[in-house]
Amino acid sequence: MKSRRHFLQSSTALIALPALESLGFRRYASAAKAVTPPKRIIFLGFGWGVTDETWYPDIKTPGPDYELPSGLKPLERHKKDFSVVQGLWNQYSSEGHAGSTWWLSGANRYAQAGQSMHNSITADQVAAAEFGIHTRFSSLELNDVKGRTNSGHGEGLSLAWDVSGKPMAGLDGPLAAYHRLFSKDTTPIEVQKARLAERRSVLDTGLENAREMQRGLSKNDTSKLDEYFQSIRDIETQISKDEQWMGVPRPETTMPQPGEGLSGKKEIEIMYDLMIAAMKTDSTRVLTYRQPVETLLTSIGIKVHPHDMSHYITTKGEKLAASEKRDQTQSALLAGLIDSLKETKEADGSSLFDHVALAYGSNIRTGHELNNCPTILTGGGAGLKLGENIVAPKDTPLCNAWLSMLHGVGVKAERHGDSSGLLKEIIA
Fold first, then answer.
1. pLDDT beyond 90 at 234
2. Half-sphere exposure in the Cβ direction for 173 (13 Å, CA)
3. CATH superfamily of 38-184+255-426
4. What is the dihedral sign for C-alpha 387, 329, 395, 120?
5. Distance from the CA of 15 to the CA of which of 122, 208, 239, 423 falls in 20 to 30 A?
6. Which contiguous run of DSSP H or E holds residue 290?
7. How far apart are CA 218 and CA 198, in angstroms?
8. What is the pTM of this model?
């Protein structure tokens, strides 16, 4: 029996039914009964940390009966549907200016002898390797409008790093994300085929030349060549994906095209809407979003620079007030996203929230502090405990939480980063 997407490529009758793209999961053409909606996994990261005194719940009141601190108060209506997890960290993180480089990988930057910078695959890309075979985009990496020029405490090049430990560029801002997801490609099929054939030819030539050079190389050069081979394989995978989806129209969406120049709070709101649309149309099941902080502050009337704000402990006053307002605004935005996840219905009547595993947080606490990484987990997709203040044992790797999320959505990785096992405290 052919799958729904095969019919979309071969039957004009079914192509004329774009509403099917909104089901969010595969359905066989003759089947009357819908299958279970797929799992999705999302990582939302932000830089510059949080306000210690007003973001973290009291560790003396673990469990469901804790009091929400003021920094999380905007999430009050969803209290039973998210958990705060305390005590997690990446043991190899030692540089407060390194951004989000190792937040989702837990890698040791000095793991490779002679190199001062090493990274490994991030948790989202572990999921993408399994989930991505079902969707047009294996994953979506979203950045703020300023993109890779915006770096700082807890920010960085990207949240997503590939299997070779290389950063994935991502899409800078809502307009770029919208075009990637929904803009129609009017290029004739034969022209698309010719372009893909040309790319394959260039790859084949480069691969042949590299193999001829391989003999007699030093260890360092061999390592560099291995990275080159991996990049070739990555491009080949993308070409195969492009071939698979050639001729399949982009899904329809009721969401209007975002305007240019969005930034700060409005940018985050639209990005959240785009994430909902991407999942609703099953364009992808894996998303990361490195949210802006500097433009967020500007958009809510704060003139303090985020670097100065993150060092509020020394002077407090205006810097502390800015930090607290930032926390409350980010929490309100997250509450709005959870609203949307709950309101968006799957074809079987369940909500998108029921099938999503979402992590929200940062690798940095405040200032240059890299322990007790701010971590919120929500969504019903991974079978995690929700509605609790969870205090993990001392020195628990953050990657234990990522490994548990992966297992919860059905990706049975043996380990991830510096993980020491599953984080049983968060598993329902």
1. no
2. 18
3. Alkaline Phosphatase, subunit A (3.40.720.10)
4. positive
5. 239
6. strand 286-290
7. 32
8. 0.83
